[in-house]
Amino acid sequence: MDDLEYREAFLNGNSKKVEDLVKNALEAGVSPRIIINQALIPAMEIVGQKFKDDEIFLPEVMLAARAMQSGLKILKPLLTGEQKNYVGRVVIGTVHGDHHDIGKNLVAMMLEGAGFEVFDLGANVSAERFLQALQQHQPDILGLSSLLTTTMPKMKEVLSLLETTGVRSKIKVMIGGAPVTQEYADRIGADGYASNAGSAVELAKKFCRN
Questions:
Q1: Residue 189: closest CA among 158, 210, 165
Q2: 81 by DSSP, 3-state: which?
Q3: Pair 75, 165 in one domain
Q4: What's the domain range around 15?
Q5: Residue (of 102, 86, 83) closest to 41 by Cα position
Q6: What Cα–Cα distance (Å) separates residue 96 from each residue in 145, 172, 178?
Q7: pLDDT digits (tens, 9 = 90+) for 154-169
Q8: pTM score
Q9: Which of 29, 67, 76, 135 has its CA 20 to 30 Å from the CA of residue 37?
Q10: What is the CATH number for 29?
């Protein structure tokens, strides 16, 4: 399937166009999984690459991600009972005390657009809630976000809880957010750091390939 029309619709943030393309493809007999794998995901990968190369910026990426979500909203109910070949499974959330979620939402949407199954816990998530979600969903990756310097220590609290409960060795932990750095990730023992949504997707793919 040619993803060019989807790519143009994403880059223009045209959710209505994406919905029409998806509906037309379904009416033509194309399976939901093929639409996702051969149209939505490749188109979103182009958006991610353009963002990484500074050819487009955060507002355009947010609109593209929302356009992609409009397509997935139509397709997901049709996948019930169908084998889901996800790239990997991710639990993601903003740490306790921090109610910022725009960056985290973008990462979650782009991960989903890249073929991951994503469980988004939202913002202001306690260490205990992260642990509960890991035990429930058994993901490959845990993503922690912090947009405030004052809440960055909460990331360490999550990692410490995973250590004491014996969960830490079973999962890759990636962190991000405006005040977060690679040095901080190294200091608290996270497996990786991503400075933006495109890098987060690349890192998650790397973790799931290894």
A1: 158
A2: coil
A3: no
A4: 4-79
A5: 86
A6: 10, 20, 16
A7: 999 999 999 999 999 9
A8: 0.83
A9: 135
A10: 1.10.1240.10
